[in-house]
Amino acid sequence: MKAFENVRGMRDFLPQELAKRRFIESKVRECFQIYGYEEVETPIIEYFELLSMRAGEEIRHRMYAFKDLGGRKVALRPEMTASFARVVATKLRSEAKPLRLGYIANCFRYDNPQMGRYREFWQAGFELFGSSRLEADAEIIIVNNDLMKRLGFSGFFIKIGDVRILRGLLNSEGVSEDDQNTIMGLVDKRKVKSVLTFLEQKKVSDGCLKTVKKLLELRGTDCRKILEDGKRILSQNERSLEALEDLEAIINLARVGGVDTTFLVDVGFARGLEYYTGMIYEVFIPELGIALGGGGRYDKLVELFGGEPTPAVGCAPGIDRIVLAMEKKGLFSGQLSTINRVLIIPVGDDLSAKALEIAANLRRNGISAQNEVVGRNIGSALSYADKKGYAYAIIVGPRELEKGCIILRNMKVKEQKEVHLVNLVNEMSLMTRISLKSI
């Protein structure tokens, strides 16, 4: 019979791998709670038209799109922001603003699988709807920074920019929105030569070409200097200057809000989604050359989907990439919690019922207990318990039961003792606390 493999780019999550993802999700939900973000779930499948609006050309081409049996063109969601904008435009349009919404979800893109990039991938998200103020932009950065700290990261940095810087310059040259989107896609991939060639074909001025080239090279961690240089280069462009001033204010607000992380200001920064209208950012660790997540402002998406004009800003930490980064830095060690489990082994089939009774009583008292159900002898059952990481084994034998006792074996130190059944729950309650297990 043929042995089937995973569809390329899709993964099975075995227990230890899933435990890592669940740990990250638990920290995300801690942030949901303390920052007031209410968790929402949306369908995996949406209308293609919804998902393709403002998604960016590359993402549109990489969607899992198909016609359903009713002939409707639908797609697996490639990211989550469009779905949340739809929810706000339809289900939550009359809710008091601001809205703070969160999610943990799987998304799909037909990308070339490589380190940190899968065709099914998992994201967390924080979306803040209803505020155009810079405090909202700062809050999203603060939340993301807090999440990284809770996961144990240090030495990470935040790359930050604003799409209005380049778009303001291109608008002043009369470059169309579609052409701007093409340019931003090239900027996102750092194809500087292609950007300049494209602009030459659009017959922009020599001054524009020189300015764009300077902007694409302008980045660094000395925020004040980079921003001042940017203001000097763009001194004649009001919209671009406003974006630079806002960027400076957002960084200062984030600092006041507790962000002591390094900011790398990148004046010529773009992301692959067309819906961004303002500040954008990404989070990096030096050891990994890929972003662990990012986000930005998108003020027109809710209105585009039929809702009221609703400013919005959000971020999406990438769970798969965070797992890779935590593994690389050894951050899972000592953080993954596991229950101390007990295996109950009857000595003979005639004691199986008593073993089931003991297990049921332990579970009623919150103790993780499993029965030996394969019919192994004691030696084989203990060997299995050792391989599977059971902390304790309870051996139910006829001689011990005559005295109202069982044998309790500590699998870690290979010691055992008789315990009276009357005292078993109390004994186990002391011994089977939540422990920390390194993976």
Which features would summarize this protein structure in a list?
Rossmann fold; BirA Bifunctional Protein, domain 2; 2 domains; 439 residues; elongated; 42% helix; single chain; alpha+beta; disordered C terminus
Number of helical runs?
17
Number of domains: 2
CATH architecture of the largest domain: 2-Layer Sandwich
CATH topology (fold) name of the largest domain:
BirA Bifunctional Protein, domain 2
Biggest β-sheet: strands ordered side by side in the sheet = 1-5-6-12-11-10-7-9-8
Percent of residues in β-strands: 15-25%
User: What is the average of the pLDDT values?
Assistant: 91
Q: Could you say which overall geometry the principal axes of the C-alpha atoms support?
A: elongated
**Number of beta-strand segments:** 19
Low-confidence runs: 434-439
Q: Quick one: CATH class of the largest domain?
A: Alpha Beta
Please estimate the helix content: 40-55%
Q: Sheet bearing the most strands, described? A: 9 strands, mixed
What is the assembly state of the chains in this entry? single chain
What is the CATH H-level superfamily of the largest domain?
Answer: Bira Bifunctional Protein, Domain 2
Structure class: alpha+beta
Radius of gyration: 28 Å
N-to-C CA distance:
35 Å
